[in-house]
Amino acid sequence: MQAKAKATKTSNLIPGATGDWEVVIGMEVHAQVASQSKLFSGSSTAFGAEPNSHVSLVDAAMPGMLPVINSECIAQAVRTGLGLKAAVNLRSVFDRKNYFYPDLPQGYQISQYKQPIVGEGEIEIDVDGEAMRVGIERLHLEQDAGKSIHDQHPDYSYVDLNRSGVALMEIVSKPDLRSSKQAQAYVTKLRTILRYLGTCDGDMEKGNLRADVNVSVRKPGDGLGTRCEIKNVNSIRFIGQAVEVEARRQIDILEDGGKIDQETRLFDPGKGETRSMRSKEEAHDYRYFPDPDLLPLEMTQQYVDDLKQHLPELPDEKRARFMKDYGLTAYDAGVLIAERERADFFEAVAKGRDGKTAANWVINELLGRLNKDGHDIGDSPLSAKQLGGLVDLIATNVISGKIAKDLFEILWTDGGDPAEIVDARGMKQVTDTGAIEKAIDEIIAANPDKVEQAKAKPSMLGWFVGQVMKSSGGKANPAAVNEILKKKLGIA
Amino acid sequence: MTDLTKLTLAEARDGLAKKTFSATDLTRAHLDAIEAANSALNAFVLPTPDHALAQAAESDRRIAKGEARPLEGLPLGHKDLFCTKGIRTTACSRILDDFKPPYESTVGQNLWDAGAVMLGKLNNDEFAMGSSNETSAFGPVISPWRRNGKDGNPSTDKLVPGGSSGGSSAAVSAGLCLAATATDTGGSIRQPAALTGTVGIKPTYGRCSRWGIVAFASSLDQAGPIAKTVRDAAMMLKVMASHDAKDTTSVDAPVPDYEAALTKGVKGLRVGVPKEYRVPGMSKEIEDLWQKGIDWLKAQGATIHEISLPHTKYALPAYYIVAPAECSSNLARYDGVRYGLRVPGKDVTDTYENTRAAGFGKEVRRRILIGTYVLSAGYYDAYYLKAQKVRTLIKRDFDLAWDKVDVVLTPTTPSPAFAFGEKSGDPIAMYLEDIFTVTVNMAGLPGISVPGGLSSEGTPLGLQLIAKPFDEETLFRAGQAIETAAGRFDAGAAWWTGAAGARSQQAGAKAGKSGGKS
């Protein structure tokens, strides 16, 4: 309890009429396994096809059809387990979860109940500059259901089985999260790890990553309260909102002397509220039992070790390396590693160059601009090679930082080779000290009052620098300008 | 010409090879027999004469070219539990309506690839649930066998052919096909074979692919043949068995030449006689039959050993938890949404309820309810989990026995064939039909039933042999020894042809209430 109480920063507490409340959050994330074919059949998993065009006899649960495990899905689940620093269970069992629904052709979902493929692990998240660990309870594989379509006919519903049987990983966290921000950071980080591993594309818009959020509230130091599960929240923003409104709803009930009913709820982003979906009494009895069509899944340690050896570098390792090798701050490194493509882009720019300068240009200029124009790093108009060329021109004093920003704009809009553009457009900075001296002399002569002020107040130097840069069209070498100005003004 | 329907599968193979008759002759003879008998026996639910004659014509072409395959031109019956491409497959349930699968089961494909001819689809208990073939949506199958009558003529009581493969056993026994496919979940091959004087083998779990066979209880279901002789059964199983990547419970092990095992004899074979199979109330004639079996094997050089299989008495109750549990889940797919029967309702739940109430017969509904109950929260540990533990103990009983013996000999059934309605009102009495057969399924072992003699009523009795996993060869060796000693048993004069049909229809109308096993 001591440790738990300490883990809650007071800033995470939610004020109520009767004092502060603490929210406790656990997440069940459903991540679609990145694979060519479904968990137990050879049908394609491609998105957006004609309804019922990716449906095998097995997916449609025709009589006498049998599931056959897709080994690639198993490998992806193991990779994910390893990426979550989790225990991989060499023996796991597929169970049947029985219930009736038209988009569930078998009348049961094949899932893993008592013996999942992956056990306990953890994820490190960063919230407001503070690192914390979130426990992973388990990861199991299961089949996705099909889709019921209710708006195509006045009397009937339609069923699309394209998704039926697609592999999902259900990743269950421990109830370690204490704020909406932490919940968002957790899903963000989990998504990053999955994308690094290539085991899930993390596309929340397509529903390839979605979260069930378990929320309860309590007075700090108390035992766990009754939780409600908010189903299928499909964006990081909505996860934050859902936690906020659900916590507030529960606090209001408790402060009015009521009690929380354990139930499943839905978040309505339009109305900004959660609604009851079904109560505990209405919960299904899923009659789980081991699927007799499938033998227990057994893997060798060698198999797991082989997958481990070929695991890509993961976000936390990459961040540590960026800090060590490129001298980046934790913040900058964190921004760069958030997406694998971003980190790769940065490394391409930074290779053989100054890491900090490269980071500065990638983060402040490129990412800012991409964001503003609604681009991803994947479809950046500027290549890593171009940005690297720009950084080279700064490093060799061919252009100043200010000119570099103009060059960036030209590259963004027109493209081309940075060095050629600088040549062709006469953007090289002036390092000819004679020319700079001449300009300085003119400015000193024209502003005797400012010269007097500068002698008393050395920070006035900046004003002179600005004037010189202006008169040179930004092309004067700032370092040379500084040096000569200091000498001429007699500033130490 | 001799009556081609009296031939064994092996004799017919030889006749075709010697060109004594053609595959078309052979097929026509059986199609004629089916036409003459089916209104009386109701063994076939869908004869497929055009399909059969086309296959036979192809076989004749191959034979002419000297390209005969192992079962070339041999006409078979095919249990309606096997999906047949483009040919109605119903598992003898209303719920599948006129379902025509767009695929062929692996076992079926193996047979057709080996040149066999399909005469039609055979009747069975609905979803293979029953021990008398009284639960079929197509009405019961009548056994060609009759009891001795008081006046010296056969009694006219209609006897059951056993179940669930009652169509298979009746058709083979009556000479309507040379051999038949069947399936066995708790005795559904061996018990009907025992009741009709035929040979039936349930191979080791995993020996035959389950792909394309309508599932009853996945961890117990196995395909196998019902045939006229041990040799015929060996010929059939050799072709039916295969490893199949589409069924991950099928086993990748070579399929031996079972016919070659037939001549190996039983000299030195250690035969176990389990004392727990002497159940209370076992009839004298079953006990005598068992003793005869022991004596025959001993006389041919086998050694006899009393063994103990202490958990035998728990097998039946455990089976009636495991099998319904799996069936309750396996049959969930019959929901009226994608294929088969649909009885519309006011909403989807109503449609499910209407469809399943109309589509499933009473025995199937009973088992779905039992299975749903034993898997329910709060009951799972007490029933399903405990039954699985019993299953492990049963397996261990046998594992220990294999240290001492090579094969186990028991009766196949506790009693001879019974008449319609005698047990259908009492599910427990019906379930007791499986008492000697279910242990074999629970342990995943191979078992064969071979005719051993006739009851005092003149009806067939079977002896069961059980062997180690994948040791079907020993079953064929020992089975051959029993067949050699006991001889073969014929249902006698064909009372079922022609006019007798009208009376059997009556029997069909009043039966069909309930039944046991698979």
Going by CATH, what is the homologous superfamily of chain B?
Amidase signature (AS) domain
Amino- and carboxy-terminal Cα gap of chain A: 60 Å
How large, in whole angstroms, is the Cα Rg of chain A? Answer: 30 Å
List low-pLDDT spans of chain B: 500-518
Summarize the main sheet of chain A: 9 strands, mixed
Q: What class would the helix/strand composition of chain B place it in?
A: alpha/beta
State the helicity of chain A in percent bands.
25-40%
Instruction: Give the tally of structural domains of chain A.
Output: 3
As laid out across the biggest beta sheet of chain B, the strand order is 1-3-2-4-6-5-10-11-9-7-8
Q: Tell how many strands the DSSP assignment of chain A holds.
A: 16
Computed over alpha carbons, the radius of gyration of chain B is: 21 Å
CATH fold label of chain B: Amidase signature (AS) enzymes
Strand content of chain A: 15-25%
The largest pleated sheet of chain B is described as: 11 strands, mixed
List the keywords.
heterodimer; A: about 500 residues; alpha+beta; Arc Repressor Mutant, subunit A; three-stranded antiparallel sheet; 16 helices; about 40% helix; B: about 525 residues; Amidase signature (AS) enzymes; eleven-stranded mixed sheet; 17 helices; globular; disordered C terminus
